[in-house]
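Hello, quick one for you while I still have it in my head. A protein chain has come my way and I'm curious about its shape. Can you walk me through what the C-alpha cells say about the fold? No rush at all, and the record is pasted right below.
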Amino acid sequence: KSYSTYTDVKNILQRWLKRKNYKTLIPVSFTSKLAREYADYLLSERQYSGKTFNHMIGILKTFFNMMVERELISDNPFKRIKKVPQDIGKNHAFTWEEKTALIKLLKERNRWLYYFVSFMYHGFIRRNELIQLRISDIKTESNTIVIRSEVSKNRKQEGISITEGLKEVICEMRLDRYPSDWYIFGIGLNPGPRKYAKGDSITIIHKEFLKELNIPPEKTLYSWKHTGVCDYFNLIKDPYALMRQLRHHDLTMTMIYLKSLGLTPNDQIINARLYYS
C-alpha cells in the first residue's frame, strides 16, 4: 500500500512537471520556488484538503531528504512548505443501531467477515495488517496479539491486548484446529496457508452489506475501528490505555484521533456547577 501511495505522489508531481515543460529537470534544479508553485497547484487547482496536502508534502519532503543524504542536492526544496490546517471530524463511527444491524447480518451471512471486523473493532487493527496475521501471532497465555514488524504499518513490532470481547470471538473461531503458521484470514477470509491477495476486495464485500442496510456511504470498513475506539473510550475514559491499544507513540496523536471522533468533551467542566448573581 505504501508503494502504491508513493507511486501516486510521484506520478502527480511528474505530470505537473511535464505540463510545465520540465521534461528533463535534474534534482538540483528543483528549487524552493518550484516547490512553492507545486504546493499552490495542489491547493488551488487540485483543491486538496489539508490532510491530503500535508500527507503529500510530507512524502515529498522524505523523497528530497533522501537526495540530500545522497548528496544529489544540498537543500530540500520542500522544507519551507508549511502544513495547512486540517479538517477535524472526518472519521465516522457506526451508530448503535447500525452496529447492531450489521453484526446480526454478518453473523447470518458471512461469519468470517464478522470475525474479521471483530478484530478491527476490539483490537483497532488495520485491514492490511489483519490479512498478514498468522495464528501463531495470537498469544493466549499473555492475552496479546503480536503485530510483527513486517506486518505493522510503521514497521515496528508491537503487541495489543486481547479484550474480553475479542477473546470470545477467538474462542468461537477454534483456531487451534489449524496449523500455527497459517494466516488467520487467508483466502476466502478462512484460515489458510495462502495470504489474502487484495485487501480492497474485503472492503468491496463489506460495502454491499452497508448498502443493504442503507448505511451512509461515508461509513466504511474502517468505521469498525472508529466504532471500537468510541465504545472503549466511553467505557474506560482513559486515552492513555487507548493510545497503547492504537499503537500510537504519542498521546497527542491519540487526542487528535479522539477529537476527530468527537470524543474529547471536558466532563469536569460539563459537570461543574457555578452560580453567579
Notes: The chain is about 50% helix and 5% strand. The chain has a mean pLDDT of 89.
